[in-house]
Amino acid sequence: MTHTTPDPDFRPTRRSQRAAAREEARKHSLLHYLGVSLSAAVLMLMLAVAAAVIGVPALVGGSAMTVLTQSMEPRLPPGTLVVIRPTDPEDIRVGDVVTYQIRSGEAAVVSHRVVSKTYENGELTFLTKGDNNPGNDPEPVHAVQIRGTLWYSLPLLGWVNNVLNGPNRVIVLAVVAGGLFVYAAGVFFTWVRGRRRLARAERTEEDPATAM
Quick one: DSSP state of residue 140? Predict the structure, then answer.
């Protein structure tokens, strides 16, 4: 009968392998949770931007616009997202920021602060001024030109608004959605693989013979 002497280094080697497998599985699990947290944060940020740019203004019949000039600095620097809501001209007060058509019936608008409110020949008009401008706007603003008053503003999101409302809106949304889907799928499969490794390591620890 042939006798064999157990290799004294065999079990420690197996134990170290199992420990390494468990450690690797735990790392993958940690990466999974970090990935999920990051994905959730990005998704929440995107939803918040969409709500600020599209959802909330739509609820009040307003609109989101982007400040392009320095006339309302420092409060509303270029790139600021301004959300306006319809307001009865009679309710507009001195000190309000109004968005109005530069010329009645045309699309171009500007957002300036009301410095006076008067009736001219029985018609309500407003005198406006950019906070950063040295003087008042040259022409009075008629009620028919008013698009609304400033509701809230968000710095820098105006550039995002320009992208979302530009001709490439569909492409941008598709790329972002596709990127998030691919990232989420990668995180999920990494988590599944890590769980399998951890389960295999635990089975090996319980029954060392399965590792031989």
Answer: P
